[in-house]
Amino acid sequence: MREITEACHQMMAVARAPHISQGARAKWVSLIQEHLGVDGLVWGIGAFDASGQIDLGQSVVYGRSEDLFSDYQSVSQKDPVTTAFTQAPSQLQIICTQSFYRSQANDDLLDLTAKHRIAHLALIGLPHAKGDDLLWMTLYRSEAHRPFDESEQNKIRFIVPMALTLDMLTRSATPASVSTMPLSSCTPREREMVLAFAQGDSNRDIANRWHLSTATVRTHLRNAYKKLGVKNKASLVNLVVRNHND
Question: What is the pLDDT of residues 202-220, one digit of tens each?
Answer without folding.
Answer: 888 888 988 988 888 888 8
